[in-house]
Amino acid sequence: MAPRKLIVEADGGSRGNPGPAGYGAVVRDGDTGLIIAEAAEFIGRATNNVAEYRGLIAGLRAARELDPQAEVDVRMDSKLVVEQMSGRWKIKHPDMQPLAAEARTVLPRSQVTYRWIPREQNKDADRLANEAMDAGQAGRPWEPKARPAGPQAAAEPLAEPAAPKAGWAAPADLGTPTTFVLLRHGETPLTPEKRFSGSGGSDPALSEKGRWQAERAAEALAGRGTVQAVVSSPMRRTRQTAEAVAARLGLEVRIEEGLRELDFGAWEGLSFAEVQQKYPQDLDAWLGSAKARPTGGSESFTNLTHRVGVARDKILARHPGRTVLVVSHVSPIKTLVRLALGAPPDSVYRMELSAASFCAVQYYTDGNASVRLLNDTAHLR
Q1: What are the CA-CA distances from residue 373 to residues 19, 165, 333, 357 (Å)?
Q2: Looking at residues 163-170, what average pLDDT do you find?
Q3: Catalytic, out of 185, 256, 268, 299
Q4: 352 is catalytic
Q5: Is 261 part of the annotated catalytic residue set?
Q6: pLDDT digits over 278-293, tens only?
Q7: Contact 272/293 with Cβ under 8 angstroms?
Q8: In terms of DSSP H, where are the helices of 107-179?
Q9: Helix and strand tally (H, E) in the chain?
Q10: Calpha distance 151→312 (Å, rounded)
């Protein structure tokens, strides 16, 4: 299989050179051109060149996190960085030498190529660098924003999508919608006890009941005969559920990292009551704000919303007009439903999502979305 292709666009800036500085970087899918990862940071007082190198390093690290075997095409509007990293210009400045050396350690040289592009073609990385500098000078950290639905989002600022337009059906000229059949994984030993089980825990496998549920879901989908592709979170429980369905349908499972569950940090494996007893203030903060993280966790619901929105856009771009089975977890599925409804962040706490249940969302080419099904468990009865 050919290696995955990724595009890194990076930039950095300094308001004073040297002065308050920041960097921005985006990673695009090499096939679709969609943005699938972003990074930005205010780095204090520095020069333009230092900020540009810091953006390059952040972009390469983001690409490595997505796929350490990928072929990466780096595109920057800094002639200096491109020529130095390509080996055509010597690196004489003492501030640049360690940064260039660090950039070369992120990925093997054979996997990375460098290309100069005009500034106007690097506007997303430039935008992020300026956002980071604005945030830093205001005394706050840079935070990613959620992306709108649809392939057109590749070069647009991140934002929550607008609420769906009124009406039961899409206009005829919009063509066939893309349908996501959202399947929560089957039960694990932690599920009946309602224990937090995210991406930072033990990664449990399906229980005997969970395997039975996966088979019932597979039977139901095979009977409908509409699913044309299967995409899964990388977690063991979702892969096992997806593989049960894919085997019945004669399809392959494609793994999408953005569909993984939230990292619950120190709450992993604990019940809600146990978290309430051990970490009451952190739990209250988490329930009260989408920006709060679980104790020791790496993500807030705001972070997860951005990640899930990127994953959604990738799937939409890859499977236009098709029906895709998306096997994921409680938080990502609720988030996809929430975004389709244009509902506020706290609406995820008002949805029930049983193990091995189905939801369905249709996406139209104008960015409109329609929730068609929620928490269907008829196949399990």
Answers
A1: 53, 18, 12, 10
A2: 44
A3: 185
A4: no
A5: yes
A6: 999 999 999 988 889 9
A7: no
A8: 123-137
A9: 10, 11
A10: 10
* C-alpha to C-alpha distances, 236 to 68, 185, 187, 239, 240, nearest whole angstrom: 20, 10, 12, 5, 6
Q: Let me know: does 330 contact 233? Beta carbons within 8 Å.
A: no
Angle between helices 79-86 and 48-66 (to 10 degrees): 60
CB 144 within 8 A of CB 303: yes
pLDDT in tens, 56-71: 999 999 999 999 999 9
Rounded to 10 deg, the angle between the 123-137 and 48-66 helix axes is 110
Q: What amino acid is encoded at 179 in this protein?
A: T
Whether residue 234 is preceded by a cis peptide bond, meaning omega within 30 degrees of 0, is: no
What is the CB neighbour count within 10 angstroms for residue 222? 14
Residue from 261, 268, 306, 329 carrying the catalytic annotation: 261
> Could you report the per-residue pLDDT of 107-164, keeping only the tens digit for each?
999 999 999 998 888 999 999 999 999 988 888 888 876 544 444 443 333 344 344 4
Torsion of CA 98, 101, 106, 109, to 10 degrees: 160
DSSP string, 271-333: BHHHHHHH-HHHHHHHHH-TT---TT-S--HHHHHHHHHHHHHHHHHHSTTSEEEEEE-HHHH
Distances (CA, A) of 65 to 58, 230, 359, 375: 11, 22, 29, 32
Residue 313's pLDDT is what? 86
Name the burial class of residue 83, with classes exposed (0-12), middle (13-18) and buried (19+) by CB atoms within 10 angstroms of its CB.
Answer: middle
* pLDDT tens for each residue of 303-351: 899 889 888 988 988 898 999 999 999 999 999 999 999 888 889 989 9
Q: With cut-offs at 50, 70 and 90, classify the pLDDT of residue 167.
A: very low
